[in-house]
Amino acid sequence: MTATRIDGKAIAAALREKIAVEGKKLIDETGVVPGIAVVIVGEDPASKVYVASKGKAANECHFKSVEHALPADTSEDTLLSLVGELNEDDSIHGILVQLPLPDHIDESKVLELIRPDKDVDGFHPINVGLLTAGAKDKAMVPCTPAGSLILAKRSLGDLSGKSAVVVGRSNIVGKPMAALLLAESCTVTIAHSRTKDLPSVVKAADIVVAAVGRPQMIKGDWIKDGACVIDVGINRIPAPERGEGKTRLVGDVDYDGAAEHAGFITPVPGGVGPMTIALLMANTLTSARRAAGLEDLDYAALLG
Ligand SMILES: NC(=O)C1=CN([C@@H]2O[C@H](COP(=O)(O)OP(=O)(O)OC[C@H]3O[C@@H](n4cnc5c(N)ncnc54)[C@H](OP(=O)(O)O)[C@@H]3O)[C@@H](O)[C@H]2O)C=CC1
Ligand SMILES: Nc1nc(=O)c2c([nH]1)NC[C@@H]1CN(c3ccc(C(=O)N[C@@H](CCC(=O)O)C(=O)O)cc3)C=[N+]21
């Protein structure tokens, strides 16, 4: 079998277009301009690329977008007071503090200070609690898992009763992904670095979500025939074939090997990554609409 490649880049572009239309409508009808603030501490080049693409997407969607780039030695207190100001700023509906933070800053302190209704990453304990308690419609749902779920549902349709394996148990991807799949009535297994016999755990799954951070770790012959493979991993590896010192991005899955078995598979780049950015815009619009007293939109339905 040769898998169908899931074009996350195109689906994300289509979603951003729908959000732009809805963003414009909100502005024209209520005067509320959705606003997003992205805070980055330090100089990590990869993080800067993500922050730039968030700003670009926000402009496309007619949102107000502000970026706070702070030096790596910024104190925890300075960061906390910036978050406090953004919490109070009525023109800002979404606050994203880029992770990871430098070691001298307590990440949980920062995430817990972000007002839950402005927490477009969905990392605040209130939002985590709503999602795991089965009340995701009231929550802000983390962007990467939400985008991954849209891709899986567009490929397989109803996920009810399917077996899903999430490889990775981080708070930002693995755990919320598992909660979303459970809410779709999948039978969910969460695998991690202590899992025994990972290849056979993966082999049992109709849906495989890889969020490990290890280049091409998941091999083609681990994949069940016809499975849907969602590769969240973003890993930069040397690419001497492109010239000396060059690099390229690969996922956590051996794409070519897995494509021989899978029914559907996301590429890296061009898969989950662009969906993450689109869902960040979706969450910002949701927050702005809630602030204007409007109902939530169903973004999967909007995509058609
Ligand atoms: N596309 C996108 O939009 C995004 C992509 N990413 C990418 O996704 C990947 C994962 O990110 P994140 O969740 O933050 O990563 P973390 O490093 O926080 O978590 C990695 C997880 O993988 C598990 N793991 C590590 N080694 C193995 C192994 N050999 N076998 C099985 N499990 C293993 C770890 O297990 P344990 O808990 O036991 O240590 C851990 O739970 C990264 O490549 C990251 O860059 C992240 C966010 C967004
Ligand atoms: N608070 C917080 N929220 C996040 O959502 C968050 C974060 N911190 N820290 C870092 C990770 C990583 N992440 C990505 C987003 C988009 C792409 C993306 O668009 N990738 C492109 C390629 C980009 C490139 O070429 O480098 C693609 O996959 O096609 C990747 C990774 C969000 N993260």
TrEMBL record:
CDD domains to which the protein is assigned, alphabetical: NAD_bind_m-THF_DH_Cyclohyd (cd01080)
Quote a single Gene Ontology cellular component term: cytosol
Tell me the InterPro entries matching this sequence: Aminoacid_DH-like_N_sf (IPR046346), NAD(P)-bd_dom_sf (IPR036291), THF_DH/CycHdrlase (IPR000672), THF_DH/CycHdrlase_cat_dom (IPR020630), THF_DH/CycHdrlase_CS (IPR020867), THF_DH/CycHdrlase_NAD-bd_dom (IPR020631)
Which reaction is catalysed here? Answer: (6R)-5,10-methylene-5,6,7,8-tetrahydrofolate + NADP(+) = (6R)-5,10-methenyltetrahydrofolate + NADPH; (6R)-5,10-methenyltetrahydrofolate + H2O = (6R)-10-formyltetrahydrofolate + H(+)
Record-stated family: Belongs to the tetrahydrofolate dehydrogenase/cyclohydrolase family.
> Could you tell me what this protein does?
Catalyzes the oxidation of 5,10-methylenetetrahydrofolate to 5,10-methenyltetrahydrofolate and then the hydrolysis of 5,10-methenyltetrahydrofolate to 10-formyltetrahydrofolate.
Q: What is this protein called?
A: Bifunctional protein FolD
